[in-house]
Amino acid sequence: MTIFKKIKHLSSLFHDEVIEIRRHLHKNPELSFVEFKTSEFIQKKLSEYGIDYSAGYVKTGVVAIIEGTQSNGKCIALRADMDALPIQETNNKEYCSLNDGVMHACGHDFHTASLLGVAKILNETRNDWSGTVKLIFQPGEEVLPGGASLMIKKGVLKNPDVDLILGQHVSPELLSGTVGIREGLFMASADELYLTVNGVGGHAAIPQNNINPLKIAAQIISALYDKFDPIDNTIMSLGAINGGALGNIVPESVQIKGTFRAMDEKWRAQAHQEMRKICNTIAQKYGGSCDLDIKIGYPFLKNDYALTTFCKEEAKQILGADSVIDIPKRMTAEDFAFYSHHVPACFYRIGVGFEGESQRKLHNSNFDVEEKSFLTSVELMSALTVSLLLQK
């Protein structure tokens, strides 16, 4: 039996166990950077599998190492995130969240369960390949500054030095059994915008005594959309505005929140300056002032072209050409992007959609995955890892 037939066999053999792991994680979700029970569960599983690991990266992160029978000097990292979202689950399944207001609505339970399945397979086949595999179970993907950036600072890509990294994300718009891959630019950077517009409050019927920050905010909002809304590979979107209490009272200030997404770091920095200029110019024109706080988020995610092309062709051999789909760029963001700016990376999307059912949505209270998708995710990541380790 070849190594790849063995991987396929083991993926099927371990399928029920991986589903059981995923359901346990789904029942017991934890928010970003407080995934303590999740971390303990991962460590327990790794110990059961006889895999060496280190814990305590950014408090809850776990890093495991699997060595092939011989060292070829190559180290491949595999990453799964493990935090949940502050969402109340509305599904009616036996494995629904037991934690009020917390839910795995983005599939991180799937990612973690899948990587544990991959770990078990790679550990059981280590006599068939050479090199080193580093398994990264990462906290805090959902909130700034992102667990990836913190783990990199803690040296997760060192000792041994990582040569390349793979990651995956569930995709409900793709049917189970398929995978979506894209070379090059894939996902956008993401910054948070917090704008405070200051004026002079007072009675709305005596406008000459006031400087209305709502009027200034309206002009700023229009100007920002006029400047950034039609630009390719850019999204400036304002999602919240708060100011005032009654119609006959002019407030002292107005708060606006939004997001800015881009796929070019030079343009990203330039756009930040343009936004500040627009806000300050308009506020000063009407006698007010403003403060724009831009919280720098994740960078854009770039898939190494050569690595991703190799993975795409291997995926066609593993799953069949019809199961491998070219997917477009996305303006959503992922902290896996940090890894892609340090080492060659390939981040792909695993189809978890249900045949004949309306599409579930990420970050939604009824999100769920077709669990037979583990047959694809576990086999593919295991086989890609071995293919890359065997690559000359």
Summarize the structure in short.
With 392 residues, the chain is an alpha/beta fold. It is built from ten helices and 16 strands.
Class computed from helices, strands and strand pairing: alpha/beta
- Helix-strand topology string: HHHEEEHEHEEEEEHEEEHEEHEHEH
* Gyration radius, in Å: 24 Å
Oligomer: single chain
Count of folded domains: 2
Give the N-to-C terminal Cα separation: 22 Å
Supply the CATH architecture of the largest domain: 3-Layer(aba) Sandwich
Keywords for this entry:
single chain; 392 residues; alpha/beta; Aminopeptidase; Alpha-Beta Plaits; 2 domains; 8-stranded mixed β-sheet; 4-stranded antiparallel β-sheet; 10 helices; 16 strands; elongated
Can you describe what's shown?
With 392 residues, this protein is α/β, with parallel strands linked by helices. The chain has helices spanning 3-13, 15-27, 36-49, 108-124, 147-153, 213-228, 265-285, 305-319, 337-340, 374-390, and strands at residues 52-57, 61-67, 75-81, 132-138, 164-175, 179-181, 184-187, 189-198, 202-203, 234-242, 249-250, 253-262, 289-295, 301-303, 324-326, 345-353. It folds into two domains: 3-186 and 300-390, Aminopeptidase; 189-295, Alpha-Beta Plaits. Strands 1-2-4-3-5-16-6-15 form an eight-stranded mixed β-sheet, sandwiched between helices. Strands 10-12-8-13 form a four-stranded antiparallel β-sheet, with helices on one face. Helix 1 (3-13) packs antiparallel against helix 10 and helix 8 (305-319) packs across helix 10. The longest helix has 21 residues, at 265-285. The model has no long low-confidence stretch (mean pLDDT 96).
